[in-house]
């Protein structure tokens, strides 16, 4: 098999749709649960790549997010509580205030409670996301605006409720693994599919030609346009760069909120 045959044209990649997204979410939720059950008391206090957040803070955020996914009223409550906090904390986006509101409202949660709470809330969130009707998921109700220089504008609910929230869990699982210095569980079928979908969206938003070799279990080789120069990077590091957790030049200067 030649190198060209192994290179995927990003414009031909099948994007993750609702049914597949729900299957990936179930796997991702379980992987995070397994990770959380293995944390020591010291691990919960470890600093992460998310500025100012410990491992505990990251997990509390994910639990709060799952609670919001499961309940429209809770989602609205978090957004409302977060609005005045964005300016207070010097945030760059309204989501920064929402995240702060999530943590403040759950300051009394202890690490011992969090794994079982994640198991319960993530299951409820997945049930709600599975049941959300397609016409509702298609409504452009998410004012994402400009994020890290990427113009997201108004997005349909499915942008988050299909795969966006799952990407968030995946990216934070990476954060936790790095913070505690332990290997990250990665497989081609699961993590490689998540990363390939990220590549496809990222390419569609910046429009620059490239040839990208992502190494590791979640990697692959991708091309867009005329191909551009070859960029080689670990697949997980690629996601960290896109999310603003690390910096890079060339085509990797283009960001995508994860």
Describe the structure.
The protein has one domain: dinb family like domain (Four Helix Bundle (Hemerythrin (Met), subunit A)), CATH 1.20.120. It is globular and about 55 Å long. The relative contact order is 0.15. Mean pLDDT is 93; it is low at 1-5. Strand 2 and strand 3 form a beta hairpin. Helix 2 packs parallel to helix 9 and helix 10 (188-206) crosses helix 11. The chain is built from eleven helices and six strands. It has helices at 3-6, 18-37, 41-44, 55-70, 72-88, 94-105, 114-131, 134-137, 158-180, 188-206, 235-242; strands at residues 7-9, 142-147, 150-155, 210-215, 220-224, 230-234.
Task: Please provide a brief summary of the model.
With about 260 residues, the chain is α/β, with parallel strands linked by helices. It contains eleven helices and six strands.
Q: Provide the number of structural domains.
A: 1
Query: Ranges with pLDDT <50 over ≥5 residues?
Result: 1-5
Mean pLDDT, nearest integer?
93
Q: Over the alpha carbons, how many angstroms does the gyration radius reach? A: 18 Å
Strand order in space, largest sheet: 1-5-4-6
CATH class: Mainly Alpha
List keywords for this structure.
258 residues, four-stranded mixed β-sheet, Four Helix Bundle (Hemerythrin (Met), subunit A), alpha/beta, 6 strands, globular
What layout of secondary structure does this protein have?
Layout: H1 3-6, E1 7-9, H2 18-37, H3 41-44, H4 55-70, H5 72-88, H6 94-105, H7 114-131, H8 134-137, E2 142-147, E3 150-155, H9 158-180, H10 188-206, E4 210-215, E5 220-224, E6 230-234, H11 235-242
Parallel strand pairs: 1-5, 4-6
Antiparallel strand pairs: 2-3, 4-5
């Amino acid at each position: 098999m030649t190198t060209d045959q192994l290179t995927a044209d990003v414009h031909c990649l099948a994007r993750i749709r609702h049914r597949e997204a729900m299957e990936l979410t179930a796997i991702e939720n379980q992987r995070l649960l397994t990770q959380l059950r293995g944390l020591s008391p010291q691990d919960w206090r470890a600093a992460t790549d998310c500025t100012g957040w410990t491992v505990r803070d990251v997990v509390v955020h994910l639990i709060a997010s799952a609670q919001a996914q499961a309940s429209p009223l809770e989602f609205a409550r978090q957004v409302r509580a977060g609005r005045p906090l964005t300016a207070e904390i010097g945030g760059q986006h309204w989501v920064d205030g929402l995240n702060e509101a999530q943590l403040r409202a759950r300051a009394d949660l202890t690490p011992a409670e969090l794994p079982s709470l994640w198991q319960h809330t993530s299951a409820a969130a997945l049930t709600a996301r599975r049941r959300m009707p397609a016409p509702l998921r298609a409504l452009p109700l998410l004012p994402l605006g400009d994020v890290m220089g990427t113009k997201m504008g108004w997005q349909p609910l499915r942008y988050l409720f299909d795969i966006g929230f799952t990407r968030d869990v995946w990216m934070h699982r990476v954060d936790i693994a790095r913070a505690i210095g332990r290997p990250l569980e990665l497989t081609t079928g699961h993590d490689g599919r998540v990363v390939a979908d990220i590549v496809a969206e990222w390419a569609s938003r910046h429009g620059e030609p490239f040839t990208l070799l992502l190494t590791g279990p979640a990697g692959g080789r991708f091309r867009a346009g005329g191909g551009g120069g070859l960029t080689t990077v670990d697949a997980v590091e690629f996601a960290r760069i896109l999310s603003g957790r690390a910096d890079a030049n060339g085509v990797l200067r283009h960001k995508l909120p994860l």
